[in-house]
Amino acid sequence: MNRFQLYRLLRKNTTLSYKRSPIFEQNKWAKVITYFGGGLFALYLILYGCIIAMLAEGETGRMISFMPIILLIDFLLRFVVQTTPGMMVKPYILLPISRYTAIECFLLSSHVSGYNFLWLCMFVPYSIILLFAGAGFWPVLIELVACLLLIILNSQVYLFFRTLINRKVLWFLAALVPYAILFIPLLMDFGKKGFERMLDLYAEAGRAWWLLPVVIVLLAVMFFINRHFQFKYVYEEISKKKEQELKHVSQFAFFNRFGLVGEYLKIELKSNLRNKTMRSRCIMSLALIIVFSMIVAYTNVYDNVIMQNFWCLYCFAIYSVTALIKIMGQEGNYIDLLMMHRENIIALLKAKFWFYSAVLLIPFIVMLPAVFTGKFTLLMLVAYMLLTAGVLHFVIFQLAVYNKQTLPLQQKVTAKGNFENGMQLVIELLSLFAPGAIAVIGFLLVGETWTFVFMSLIGLAFIVTHPIWIRHIYKRMMLRRYENIDGFHMTRQ
C-alpha cells in the first residue's frame, strides 16, 4: 500500500468514526447550524474580497497587504473549527507502518481541509475584479496562490501552537508573538498614516518575485516541525509518563459550613485549579475578559452604546458560557457515584450555581476602570452581573438535562473532539445575544436607567428562586437518567 492509498484509507476511517460515534445523531442540528454559519461567512468573505479589490485600483499586492489582519483572524477562528492531528492518530501508532506515516497523512489532510479553501471566497472575487481592471494574469495568479499558501501555512502555525497550548495554556501568549511581529511596521507611525504605510509595505512585498518561494519554504519547514512535535507528544501520552506528584493538598475548610453543597464547591474549585481542561478554559476566558475590558476602557474602538452594552455583557457571560455549555460533562467521568445517593445532583447544581455566580465578581472588578473612564456606569455593571447570575445561568443550566457526553478532565493531544449538539449552540447564541437585544429594546422604550433597573430586578428574581428551578431541572434529569448515563458511558475516553 503506497502513501496515497493509505491517505485515502485514513480519510475514510475518520469519516466512518464520526458516523459511528454515539453522538452522531445529536450533532445533526449542530452540523446544519455550522453549514449555515459557514455560508454567511462565505458571503462576508466575498463582500470583503470585492471591497479590497476596489481599493487595489487595478494593482496586485493589495490582498497581501491585508494578510496580517486576515491571518490573525484565521488563527483565532481555528480554535473553533480545527483539531490537531494527534487527536486522530492514536489508533494507528501501533500498526506495522512507518511511525510518522499516520501523522504525515493527517497533516496533509489539514492542508486540503474545506475551511482552508473557504478563504478562496475572498481571494477569487478579488482576483477576478483585478483581471477585469487590467492587471496581468500571471501576477494575479501568483498573488492568489500566495494568499492560499499563507492560509495553509497559518494552519500549520496553529497546529504547532495548539499542541503546546494543550499542554500549558500560557503558550497562547507566545502564539500571538508571530502575529505581533507582522504589525511592527504600524509602530513606525501609530495612527492612520502608519496603517497606510504598513499596507503599502506589504503590498510591495506582495508584488516581489521572492514571495512565493519564501512561503513554500516556510510551509515545508512548519510541516516537518509539526511532524516531529505531533508524534513526540502523542508517544509521550501513550507511554504514560509519570506525572509530577502533588506537594500540597488544600483543604478549603471554609466550605465545610455549607454541608454537602460545600463539598461540591470544593470539587468545583479544585477542578478549575488542577484539571487541564477546566484550568485552560478558565485562564483563556479571564484573559479575554481583561483584554476586552482594557480595549473598551482605554480606546475609542467601541464608543457607541450598542457595542458598549454588548461587550459589557460579553465580559460577564464569556466564562459561564464556555464553562457551563458542557455542564455535567466532567461529572460524566463519575456519574455512577453521583446517582447512588438521592438528590446528590441538586447539591451539585447548587454548588455550580454559587461558584459561577461568585466568579462574576472578577469581571466586575476588572471592568471598574471602564467606570472610572466614563465608558460604563456602576448601575450598568450591577445590572449585567445580576442578569448573568440569574437569567443567563437559568438558561444554560437547562443543558444539564440534555448533555450526555463525557468531558475528559485532563486535556490531551490524543483526546477526541467534543462536538456540540444543536441545543448547546442555540443556547450559547441566545445567552450572548438575547440579553443585548432586550437591553437595546429597553433603551428605546423606557431609557437606559430604567432598563438597567429592570434587568437587575429580573436577575435578582432568578437568583432568589434558584432552589426552585434547580429542583425542576433535577426532576427532568431523573426522567432521562438512563439515557444520559448510557451516553456518558459510551463517550468516556
The amount of helix comes to over 70%
Based on secondary structure, the structural category is mainly alpha
- SSE order: HHHHHHHHHHHHHHHHHHHHHHHHHH
Describe the largest sheet. Answer: none
Oligomerization state: single chain
Q: Which residue ranges are poorly predicted, with pLDDT under 50 across at least 5 consecutive positions?
A: 413-419
Strand content: under 5%
Q: Kindly state the mean pLDDT as a whole number? A: 79
Q: What's the Cα radius of gyration?
A: 25 Å
User: How many DSSP H or I helices?
Assistant: 26
Shape: globular
For the secondary structure, the number of strands is 0
Q: What is the terminal separation in angstroms?
A: 31 Å
Question: Would you kindly provide a written description of the structure presented here, covering whatever features stand out?
Answer:
The chain is mainly alpha-helical. 73% of the residues lie in helices and 0% in strands. The chain has 26 helices and no strands. α2 packs parallel to α8, α14 crosses α18 and α16 packs antiparallel against α23. The longest helix is centred in the N-terminal third of the chain and has 31 residues. The two termini are 31 Å apart. About 1% of the residues have low confidence.
